Amino acid sequence: MNRSEIVEGLRGGAVVALSSAPFAVLFGAVAVDNGLNLPEVALMSATVYAGASQLVGIELFGQHVAAWLVVLSIFAVNFRHVLYSAALTRYLTHFTLGQKLLAFFVLIDPQFAETVRRAESGKTITLEWYLAFAAVIYVPWLVFSIIGAAFGSMIGDPRVWAIDVLLPLYFLGIVVGFRRKPNFYPVVIASFIGSVLGYQLVGSPWHVSIGAAFGVLVAALMPLPQASGTKTAKAGHS
Amino acid sequence: MNFALDPATAWLIIAAAAATYLTRVGGYVLITRMSSIPPRLEAALNAVPAAVLTTLCAPAFFNGGLDIKLAMLVALVVSLKYPGLIMLAAGWATAMLCRHAFGL
Prior knowledge:
The structure holds two protein chains of two kinds. Chain A is mainly alpha-helical.
């Protein structure tokens, strides 16, 4: 056991835990508003553990969308993690398989960003640092989700407290956070047009798949940048 | 509040968790098998989060009332300079003002 590694991990993770706490409360409140109860909120935060996708899932769940489509949408929002685990593999070669499988379970955006930063500064990624960083985010995420769920069920009409606008605002914020990624404007414009068309012509929830397909297709067809490798851009917060 | 887990909902959550975990080990499994990701595939993968999330706020803006539209526009401008929580607060305050002060 390396005490200083644990302390550094806890300290770094605490910042993330604090800044994500309001989103955990938001998730809990919105989840209850969309028909989940407290144990279901806790189960979702504990097992999915991916902020944005949890809110996406809840939004669709509230619209009584088919279950497979909810799961597919969560999968789509979380797809970026494929790039994360691919990029992180080279820093975790000294972990055992079991340790790697555990490490990937808690691989959220800030965990990825901080691990890469630490490794690139020349430090070895120890299991103690990695898990301390993860735990101090994971536990508050769960606790604040539950608090949000308890609080959310006491709010009557969500319109009075403008709870209903929080979710689109939250998604908007994440989209804006991606604005320095390659192909951002063509992708967003294509997805916007695709989803509005899909919403008007086909109906909800198909606007999600149609809009996303528009954006992804445009990205795949855009001219490729000169120096392109497996470098992963930092992808906003979760 | 009802404190019993609804089996259908619980299974949905477990399936979502499994799908999420699949993305989190997927890159590891892929990278140990292939030497590099084709650039067009990578460009498409990179676009997935922005594309999906845009579809989740576009109809809200397009179909929402003036309160939602104003809240989202204010949040958009604020988010260009300030972190997520301030953006959220600004948009929320705009919606509250619209509804309670101006009756929109």
